[in-house]
Design goal:
Strand content: 25-35%
Radius of gyration: 23 Å
Number of helices: 13
Number of strands: 27
Shape: globular
Structural class: alpha/beta
Largest sheet: 6 strands, mixed
Helix content: 10-25%
Strand order of the largest sheet: 6-7-9-10-12-11
Length: 518
């Protein structure tokens, strides 16, 4: 560590940190958000630092369809009282002004060292969003710095006036400004770039976000951890305690079980069942400083009250109408989003094509939300949660050459562990090589014709970002129903019965897949 670190004394206990990120649609499930909050408040005490790593506003069905919008998250923030958070890309979905106002409303200090712009709060001036903050817990001075994904402006498409710089340089500069602290914590909503941050920043801990997958890894003296997101788990990190050189003994992931959340008989900390070890199923004895007794009971009741708030909002919205019965569950994991053809991806792409009456439907893998499978009695809210964003289905007119350029770009390899499928397909078949070269593309069973004009349906989002070339606003020839309405309508018509049928494939370089009618 650098000279800016103040040495902890032998009398001071280790620092405990509770972290999470990407809560997103957890607010749509009252039992989940209640169980998550109950777990968090039972694991903490006055010496525990609670922090988030972005995208913890209320992306989801309730956020889309109610007046509160993303501020659906406010009751959680008031109950959980995190010390700090940073901006995820979805926190900018409603623009910079909303993000700045949100940062002013919540108990947490929002930090973001790598964002600048000509706008109030993000202009680098005094009184704006700080690069970092110093928090005291258990006699420790902890420097906390936040960084957003460097591609946030491109990913989001609503904040072109903001600049997102190199998170490594920005974080190191921010820590230098904070001065002497005992521990340094980075809140990094950087996804595949989280390891780069961990390698390049002089910090004790990087709490990552953006990618919804658990991770624990050490880069030199810096520990990187990330949760699976969605309110499914909480990570607990102990810094300063004895343990092996890899630091794994100081990391415990606590899975959230909504079905077990009973506010009338919730266990105290001593009966919490121990802490799960870092991915190996072991348990260890809970820390003696975890809240218990009457205070734990009070906080459990607060979690129950929070869950009831979201139950009432959901009931008032009327999204529990059953629109389909599904015997074979549609799974919604990271692999279904980006790992190849999937049933949930096919469903969403079919809904776009059906809504527009287009020849081809494209649905971005990044717009599919992870969550519980769509199974049994599927409600309006369940379907909307697949892609809880506003905006219409747009219909673009592209010639064969332009469409080929879109499909070539759609398989570019992401850095890190994001996957390779950027678009799910309806009405066509796309074959890429293992080197992400476009080997074959058909529409309606016919090979792509460079001289033919095609009508392509997709969510509006894809024409607002400068990523997929010819899919631009000036190529839009028609707008149709809101995309969430298109998903619900298609589900009502039996669209959730979709199967995988070879719409997307990978082949070795130099080979061409066989013909297939679409």
């Amino acid at each position: 560590m650098s000279d800016e670190h103040a040495a902890p004394t032998d009398e001071q206990p280790p620092l405990r940190i509770l972290g999470y990120s990407d809560l997103e649609n957890a607010y749509d499930d009252p039992a989940r958000v209640g169980a998550f909050t109950d777990l968090l408040t039972r694991r903490r005490d006055e010496r525990t630092l609670v922090v988030g790593a972005g995208d913890n506003t209320a992306l989801g069905t309730l956020a889309l369809l109610t007046d509160e919008s993303r501020a659906q998250a406010l009751p959680f923030f008031e109950a959980a009282e995190p010390a700090a958070d940073t901006f995820g890309n979805h926190d900018f979905d409603h623009g910079r002004a909303w993000a700045a106002e949100w940062a002013d409303r919540v108990p947490a200090t929002y930090c973001c060292a790598n964002v600048t712009g000509p706008a109030e709060r993000f202009d680098g001036a005094t009184g704006g969003v700080p690069d970092g903050t110093v928090v005291e817990r258990g006699g420790h001075r902890i420097g906390v710095v936040g960084v957003a994904h460097p591609d946030t402006a491109d990913i989001c498409g609503t904040v072109d006036e903001l600049d997102f710089s190199d998170p490594v340089a920005a974080a190191n500069d921010a820590f230098a400004q904070l001065g002497a602290v005992e521990y340094r914590v980075v809140l990094a909503h950087c996804g595949a770039e989280d390891p780069t941050v961990a390698r390049g920043v002089d910090a004790d801990l990087v709490l990552g976000g953006h990618l919804h997958s658990r991770r624990t890894e050490r880069f030199g003296d810096t520990l990187l951890v990330r949760t699976a997101g969605g309110g499914t788990e909480l990570v607990e990190v102990t810094l300063g305690g004895a343990g092996p050189d890899d630091g794994s003994a100081g990391v415990a992931f606590h899975e959230v079980d909504p079905a077990s959340f009973d506010p009338k008989s919730a266990p105290t900390a001593e009966a919490d069942g121990g802490r799960q070890g870092p991915g190996d199923g072991r348990t260890v004895t809970p820390s003696s400083d975890v809240r218990a007794g009457a205070e734990s009971s009070d906080r459990t009741q607060a979690a129950a009250s929070l869950a009831e708030t979201y139950r009432q909002r959901r009931a008032a919205l009327g999204v529990d109408e059953v629109v389909a019965q599904v015997e074979d569950p549609l799974v919604r994991t990271e692999d279904e989003r980006f790992g190849g053809e999937s049933r949930v991806g096919n469903f969403a792409a079919d809904a776009m094509r059906e809504s527009a009456g287009a020849q081809l439907g494209l649905f971005p893998g990044g717009s599919v939300r992870t969550g519980d499978p769509l199974a049994g009695a599927v409600t309006v809210g369940d379907v909307v949660s697949v892609c809880p964003f506003g905006g219409p289905v747009v219909e673009c007119e592209l010639d064969g050459t332009a469409l080929r350029a879109v499909l070539e770009e759609a398989a570019y390899p992401h850095n890190g562990d994001r996957g390779w499928v950027q678009f799910h397909v309806s009405g066509g078949r796309v074959v890429w090589t293992d080197e992400s070269e476009l080997a074959r593309a058909t529409v309606g069973g016919d090979p792509l014709d460079p001289d033919r004009t095609y009508r392509v349906a997709a969510p509006e989002y894809v024409v607002t970002i400068a990523v997929f070339g010819p899919l631009r606003r000036d190529n839009v020839v028609a707008e149709h129903d809101e995309q969430w309405r298109a998903l619900v309508a298609h589900a009502r018509e039996g669209g959730l019965g979709v199967e995988c049928a070879g719409r997307i494939a990978r082949v070795p370089p130099g080979t061409v897949a066989g013909e297939s009618r679409d």
